[in-house]
Amino acid sequence: MKPTLLVLAAGMGSRYGGLKQMDGLGPNGETIIDYSIYDAVQAGFGKVVYIVREYFLDAFKDMVKTKYQHVTCPDGSPLEFDFVTQELNKIPEGFTLNPEREKPWGTAHAVLMAKDVVKEPFAVINGDDYYGKESFRIIADWLMKHENTKGEYCLVGFELDNTLSESGGVSRGLCTADSDNYLTHVEEHHNVEKAEDGKVYADNSKGERIEVNGKALCSMNMWGFTPDYFDNSKDVFTEFLKENINELKKEFYIPYAVDYMIKNNLAKTELLSTPSRWFGVTYKQDRPGVVAKFKEFADTGIYPSPLYK
């Protein structure tokens, strides 16, 4: 069994100023998604499912066909692809969409869109984040070991120090786990940054400025699920909509769905740890640093250049 990679690529890139999922950042125009797929294939994934918006679906399909038509898995089999779209009106029966709502329903809603095309254990990643080779090996190994399990998921946690930006504060969800390394809580912190004294500070959920451990594990939205997640998540989404169907900005996020499942004994989530350094493009000023990093990867032979021939 080869796991599937589910790529969240429906974000509109409003802060960045365009479709950053399609922005060429590598030496030969490679996107961040290109590197993620390369790492995933090497780790043992056999299928990629993109979650996109309807308005750029055709352009995305053309890009995939051009870039990946000759990509094969290590065993020689072709890499499979599929596409699903996330739209506001894709909600359970019995609910009526508020016509004034414009904001998407969030990452957990996006994952639900793949319910009919994913039947095997799968990983979820952001399309605009670089996770590193080791992270994909770690989550692929976990997924392949849990082919026949239910109610047991995982989250790849990154050391906070390995996710900070040199250009300012960031928001991070710091993870807490029990003695068996199962996730108990993810608390969002804002304006996380390293100070001149070398310590890391953040605003906690109460708005207090506190020192945090730079070695603490945080979530960068790299999750591992078995297929039963879809049914559990659909039930949670239904409960979410009962309270929020008329809200214009409330979103149904993966951490919310997983936290609900943990607290209601529907599932447990193992917290895994990766040594990889995360980086991504949130704002336009992040772009030069990412371009330089991918050039370094090519120059040192970490990745072939071009990535796909």
Task: Looking at this protein, list some descriptive labels.
309 residues, 11-stranded mixed sheet, single chain, two-stranded antiparallel ribbon, 7 helices, Spore Coat Polysaccharide Biosynthesis Protein SpsA, Chain A, 25% strand, alpha/beta
Describe this entry's structure for a reader.
- The protein has 309 residues and is α/β, with parallel strands linked by helices.
- It has a single domain, classed as Spore Coat Polysaccharide Biosynthesis Protein SpsA, Chain A.
- The longest helix is centred in the last third of the chain and has 16 residues, at 229-244.
- Strands 1, 2, 3, 4, 6, 7, 8, 9, 10, 11 and 12 form an 11-stranded mixed β-sheet that branches. Strands 5-13 form a two-stranded antiparallel ribbon.
- The protein contains 7 helices and 13 strands.
- 27% of the residues lie in helices and 25% in strands.
- It is globular and about 50 Å long.
- The model is unreliable at 12-18 (pLDDT under 50).
- Strand 2 (47-52), helix 2 (57-68) and strand 3 form a beta-alpha-beta unit.
- Helix 1 packs across helix 4 and helix 5 crosses helix 6 (254-263).
